Every structure is written in structure tokens, then in C-alpha cells.
């Protein structure tokens, strides 16, 4: 199971004078214990779907043509898009880069099958004499501790 979880808890309608109204879906992304939110329009999901078709067999997308002003229909679309994202995560051992970019994930550390079967690469080791989380806060700032822990457990994950 991937350490990435997604949900679409809500949506909202946008209206402006430049273009006709549209709906924005709020996507909550939970990765490595950190939760953040992004917003995407249906057209962005549709573009993702077209690009994913080049590398994987993505699940079905909710219908493109709906009456956007009907709340019940928008709720069904929200549920369908949430299932769409979750299915991509569940069905793919390695998530496509285009999908990670869509979720604003810069790099997702994964261990290729060849490495998990015996060809292990060298990983540097760092040792603390005492647990840094148990040290008084005036000895180390939280930023330093978080950076060290991040470096130990997620060495391939690039900071934003």
C-alpha cells in the first residue's frame, strides 16, 4: 500500500466575468503523516486522464457532460473523482510522474523490485545517543529535529 492517501471532501462553484461558472474540487492529500489540500477543476482531471492513458490503463472517469448547477449531480461527480484518484493509487505499484505532479508531490520514494530482492544500495547511517524527540526543546529547534528525522526516514524525498 502506498503512503499516499487522497480524498475529495468538498467542492465549490466559481463565477467570474471572464469565463462561465465552473466547479473546483478540494483534494486532501495525506503523505508521510502530512496533510495538505489542493484545488482542481474537472478539466484538470480530464487532462490528467488523457495523459495517464499513455502510460497506464486508468479507471473510468465520471461523465464530462453534466449539469453543473445541480448539487446532487456535483456530489456524484465528487464521489466519482475521489474513487478515480484512489483507484489509481491502489492499482499501481509505482505511481506515474504525471499523477504525482497532479497531486503536487515532487518526488515519491519507491524501492524498485530489483532492489527489494537482494540488490540493496548503501544507505548512510546516523546515530543519536538519545532520542532527539525526548531532548528538551531548547537544545534543538523543531526544524533541526524534523530535518534529521526527514533525512533518516525519507532520504529520497525532496523538500518543497
UniProtKB/TrEMBL annotation:
SMART domains linked: PX
Membrane topology, as annotated: Peripheral membrane protein
InterPro entries reported in the protein's UniProt record: PX_dom (IPR001683), PX_dom_sf (IPR036871), Sorting_nexin_PX-domain (IPR052467)
Occurrences of domain PX (ranges): 1-115
Protein name as it appears in the record: PX domain-containing protein
GO CC, alphabetical: cytoplasmic vesicle membrane
CDD domains xref list: PX_SNX22
Keywords: Cytoplasmic vesicle, Lipid-binding, Membrane, Protein transport, Transport
Keyword field contains Transport: yes
GO aspect biological process, one term: protein transport
Gene Ontology molecular functions: phosphatidylinositol binding
Family in the record: Belongs to the sorting nexin family.
Subcellular location: Cytoplasmic vesicle membrane
Keyword Protein transport recorded: yes
Superkingdom of origin organism: Eukaryota
Amino acid at each position: 500500500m502506498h503512503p499516499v492517501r487522497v480524498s475529495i471532501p468538498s467542492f465549490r462553484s466559481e463565477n467570474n466575468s471572464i469565463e462561465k461558472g465552473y466547479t473546483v474540487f478540494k483534494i486532501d492529500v495525506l503523505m508521510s503523516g502530512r496533510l495538505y489540500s489542493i484545488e482542481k477543476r474537472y478539466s484538470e482531471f480530464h487532462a490528467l486522464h488523457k495523459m495517464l492513458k499513455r502510460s497506464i490503463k486508468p479507471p473510468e472517469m465520471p461523465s464530462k457532460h453534466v449539469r453543473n448547477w445541480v448539487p446532487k449531480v456535483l456530489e456524484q461527480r465528487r464521489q466519482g473523482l475521489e474513487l478515480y484518484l484512489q483507484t489509481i493509487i491502489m492499482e499501481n505499484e509505482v505511481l506515474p510522474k504525471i499523477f504525482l505532479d497532479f497531486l503536487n508531490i515532487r518526488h515519491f520514494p519507491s524501492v524498485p523490485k530489483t532492489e527489494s530482492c537482494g540488490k540493496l544500495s548503501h544507505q548512510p547511517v546516523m546515530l543519536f545517543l538519545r532520542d532527539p524527540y525526548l531532548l528538551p526543546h531548547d537544545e534543538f529547534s523543531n526544524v533541526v529535529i524534523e530535518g534529521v528525522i526527514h533525512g533518516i526516514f525519507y532520504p529520497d524525498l525532496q523538500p518543497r
